[in-house]
Input
Amino acid sequence: QVQLVESGGGLVQAGGSLRLSCASSSRTFDTYAVGWFRQAPGKVREFVTGISWNGAGTYYADSVKGRFIINRDNAKNMVYLQMNSLKPEDTAVYYCAADLSSSYRQRVVATEGVYDYWGQGIQVTVSS
Output
């Protein structure tokens, strides 16, 4: 069982920044990829970014490329999402998720279905 807990969300003005954190309880945290997804009101959940087990592989959705940065600290069982130049359309509930089947693979998968465990989600609201 893997527990994931997001933190760091909130309300920010357009152009501002926020850093989300994802804490894991897993003892094997350093063996698998972690992804961030988001779901805006009335929309389907979408992939935002992901990072491989050692941080060497990352993948970003086009909508956030150049604005968001993902990194991880395996010693602390943490993944971070630095969000810069935020836009109102970034408003959503953000989820972190663990892809246990990725096991030492560098390629990050953007498909929601491969992720085994999910956090409860955290609200990010960007005002215009």
Remarks:
- The mean pLDDT is 96.
- The two ends are 40 Å apart (CA to CA).
- Residues 38 and 44 are 9 Å apart (CA to CA).
